[in-house]
Design a protein that fits this description.
With 380 residues, the chain is α/β, with parallel strands linked by helices. The protein has helices at residues 3-46, 53-69, 74-96, 115-126, 142-146, 158-168, 186-195, 227-239, 249-276, 281-286, 290-303, 307-314, 318-332, 335-340, 343-357, 360-379; strands spanning 106-110, 130-134, 151-154, 177-180, 200-205, 218-225, 243-246. Helix 1 (3-46) crosses helix 3 (74-96), helix 2 packs antiparallel against helix 3 (74-96) and helix 9 packs across helix 11.
Length: 380
């Protein structure tokens, strides 16, 4: 036997050993999944939420310690367990979703045939609620569909919310919770309070209709009237795995003007510009590092969706439009800086903004670096 043959046999034995270890890892993951299923059932019976942040952080700290003791990279082990725990939460959420806080209660979804309305309908039906859908052509059926409702959700466009509240309120029981899910809260909540004398709460799910599981998804809740009577609705979202964040209507709208309207508009302008200058998109991607590809991916994501949805968000209120006007004025204010090639002025302004961001800059580098590494691993 030659040295090459001997080395080949030894290498094959090592590869076989790796294969055996990998089979053990898969079997252990399957065993862990089975235990997670039992945990989910125990939580469902006890009415406990899926997400337990403190326990997760304790677990990750312990796994990092064990990794160091074993001579392994703690970051690698943490990344592995975060993926495993995420999968566990999703599995638990799917199981716990079957638990209704008030099973058998009647829910009417106005606009239930729309994308978000369908998603809400599915979640409520999966949790044992009796769900009815009311569409624009169904108002003659409103007394029958909504007359005994415990919860009415307005899943209609922002501009139609006030009218839907006025049309629906007269046939709702006084004890029924009236809620909306628009991305603007001051006007819709005021309209619901004016139309309905019973419990009112404004909701803003911070995710789209493609979301299948509510694990760690944010739902903003704006109190309207009788928060105790509305509490079970928020508890239901929590039971589904969502994180409920409370805010006043004014605070919500002020923050959303930046988080949604400004961000989407700035992305729209970037996409508009590169399309008009005739950029060779495919060729540009060949030169792109992961940061630019990630940013361009968010631009492409915007233009792959419904323009009516974004027009509704961007043009929703005069306050949002005023904010965007000031954004464009700020951009135009940099023309002199560019024309004069004033590098010193640029650096001064850069440092001023960096000081304003403060410690978030370091956090942003860590978080974006993680995303970039994941992107490289997946598509690099």
């Amino acid at each position: 036997m030659t040295r090459r043959d001997a080395a080949g046999d030894g290498l094959k034995e090592l590869r076989d050993e790796i294969d055996a270890v990998d089979r053990e890892l898969v079997a252990l993951l399957a065993r862990r999944r089975d235990v997670v299923a039992r945990v989910a059932e125990a939580k469902r019976r006890a009415g406990l939420p899926v997400h337990h942040p403190a326990r997760e952080e304790d677990l990750l700290s312990d796994r990092r310690r064990r990794a160091r003791e074993a001579g392994l990279d703690p970051d690698l082990v943490e990344d592995l367990f975060r993926r495993v725990m995420r999968s566990s939460r999703v599995s638990q959420s799917a199981a716990v979703t079957a638990r209704g806080v008030r099973p058998g209660a009647r829910v009417v979804v106005v606009g239930g045939a729309g994308a978000m309305g369908r998603r809400l309908r599915g979640w409520f039906e999966g949790s044992g609620y009796r769900v009815a859908v009311l569409e624009r052509d169904d108002w003659h059926r409103a007394p029958a569909l909504a007359g005994g409702a415990d919860l009415a959700v307005l899943a209609v466009p922002i501009g139609a919310t006030a009218g839907a509240a006025r049309s629906l309120a007269p046939v709702l029981p006084r004890s029924c919770v009236l809620a909306d899910i628009t991305s603007v809260k001051q006007a819709p909540v005021a309209a619901m309070l004016d139309a309905h004398p019973g419990p009112v709460v404004g909701l803003h799910p911070m995710f789209g209709p493609t979301t299948r599981v509510l694990d760690r998804q944010i739902v903003v809740a704006v109190p309207g009237r009788d928060p105790d009577a509305c509490a079970w609705v928020l508890e239901q979202f929590t039971a589904w795995g969502a994180v409920v964040v409370s805010a006043t209507a004014a605070e919500h709208d002020e923050i959303m003007a930046v988080v949604q309207a400004l961000r989407h508009f700035a992305t729209f302008v970037f996409g508009q510009f590169v399309s008009r200058v005739g950029m060779d998109l495919r060729r540009t991607l060949e030169f792109s590092g992961p940061i630019y590809r990630l940013e361009l991916g968010m631009v492409g994501r915007l233009f792959a969706q419904d323009p009516e949805l974004y027009a509704e968000i961007i043009f929703a209120t005069p306050e949002r439009r005023d904010l965007l006007r000031r954004y464009l004025e700020t951009a135009a204010g940099n023309l002199d800086l560019l024309e004069q090639g004033d590098r010193d002025a640029f650096c001064r302004e850069f440092r001023r903004v960096a000081d304003w961001f403060g410690d978030f800059g370091g956090q942003a580098i860590r978080e974006s670096s993680y995303l970039i590494e994941k992107l490289v691993e997946r598509f690099g």
